[in-house]
Design brief:
Number of strands: 31
Oligomer: single chain
Low-confidence stretches: 1-27, 29-38
CATH class: Mainly Beta
Distance between the termini: 33 Å
Number of domains: 1
Largest sheet: 6 strands, antiparallel
CATH topology: Methylamine Dehydrogenase, Chain H
Structural class: mainly beta
Shape: globular
Helix content: under 10%
Length: 389
């Protein structure tokens, strides 16, 4: 099940704001020293047949393992095969402004899709650039949407949740599927009231932040509404044609009067999945749900992470959450957490993180001068080295 996907919807500022006091049902503890996990001794990777980029100003990153990763800058699509030390320009021809107009969907180090909108016909058309050789060559096709959350299950089969516009707590979307690698897309659902085929099983109300498929029949849409005590989680079992609200979710203590925002589900195996839910009341906490039966049932894990801002679930047992000051690490499927204070105070410069296992990860920073830097850890977040200062 692919780990990487790109969410295209609005960042809901409500979840980023308030500081909070740590109210937990199971208190995280300071860990004993983590076991050493040096980078594996591997040969120097062969150079990629593309132009080098010196110290790229990365806006996004997505790593597949400790060596292979992709990213975007304000003007380029780039990739690395040595853990972020060396970057190559693999921008598809005809793309000039990468950061604000493109989305990447990465299946593996060779198969990648770049989505870009048709600004003259927004939100109803766009373009795809697809590579199957790691960005050395690209094929361009048209799409019936401008911006979407895209997930490919393999080289051929994929889903898209197309954003048709949001406002006043509502979000019009359309669901599409492809079975030929993105060359053609079939719409299976739309809730835009301006469309004659509009339906309401996935309602217009609520801001949708992404679609997570299990296979070509079953998938989930997550998001937020501004009604208290309600987790926004809808499921389809017929390729998106009909949706049902998932109601059998235990709520965290005190959540009955809080606003709840669900984040995209992470399937780390075909059976094991995690979902984070932000709980905004007097303070801000993050709850973690786990499923071990392919998303059929969900259980609430004991600990509420104070101010959890970013989460990476990397295996059926391992996950990392950053809360603006320190890292929370679990090795037992989110039942107990250790607090890892980093030796770099990222603070407000933290932009995003990406872990590929419980020990190896990267953090992107953005400071007040618009300078971007990339850091790497190999001990679960305790120590960080600048890769791109």
């Amino acid at each position: 099940m692919p780990k990487f996907r790109v969410s295209i919807f609005l960042i809901i500022l409500l979840w980023a704001g308030s500081g909070c006091s740590p109210t937990t049902s199971s208190t995280p503890t300071q860990p004993a020293e983590l076991p050493p996990t040096p980078y594996p001794d591997t040969p120097v990777p062969a150079a990629i047949a593309a132009p080098l980029v010196e110290a790229p100003g990365l806006v996004t990153i997505q790593f597949l393992n400790e060596l292979d990763g992709w990213g975007s800058t304000e003007t380029q699509v780039v990739r690395t095969n040595d853990g972020g030390i060396t970057w190559y320009n693999v921008t598809p021809p005809g793309i000039d402004e990468a950061a604000n107009s493109i989305k990447l969907s990465i299946l593996n180090k060779e198969a990648v899709w770049v989505q870009t909108p048709d600004l003259e016909n927004y939100p109803n058309s766009g373009f795809f650039f697809h590579t199957s050789d790691g960005g050395l060559t690209w094929m361009k096709t048209s799409a019936p949407f401008s911006a979407a959350d895209i997930t490919f299950l393999d080289d051929d089969n994929g889903w898209a949740l197309a954003d048709l516009g949001a406002g006043a707590g509502s979000n019009a979307v359309a669901v599409y599927q492809t079975m030929d690698g993105g060359a053609n897309w079939k719409q299976t659902y739309i809730n835009d009231p301006n469309d004659s085929h509009a339906q309401d099983s996935l309602p217009l109300g609520g801001l949708k932040n992404g679609l997570t498929p299990l296979n070509m029949q079953t998938g989930w849409v997550t998001g937020v509404t501004y009604s208290s005590g309600s987790v926004y989680l809808y499921r389809t079992d017929n390729a998106g044609a009909n949706w049902a609200l998932v109601t059998a979710l235990p709520l965290p203590p005190g959540a009955e009067s809080a606003e709840l925002g669900s984040e995209q589900i992470d399937f780390v195996t075909p059976q094991a999945a995690f979902m984070t839910v932000h709980v905004a009341a007097a303070d801000f906490k993050t709850a973690v749900y786990v499923s071990n039966d392919s998303g059929n049932t969900w259980s609430l894990t004991p600990t509420l992470i104070p101010d959890g801002r970013a989460a990476d679930f990397v295996s059926a047992t391992d996950a990392v959450i950053y809360n603006g000051a320190q890292f929370y690490v679990t090795h037992d499927a989110a039942h107990a957490w250790s607090i890892i204070p980093p030796d770099v105070a990222f603070g407000d410069t933290f932009a995003m993180m990406d872990f590929v296992n419980a020990f190896s990860g990267w953090v992107l920073t953005l400071d007040s001068t618009n300078h971007r830097a990339l850091y790497r850890t190999s001990d679960g977040g305790a120590t960080w080295s600048p890769v791109i200062p």
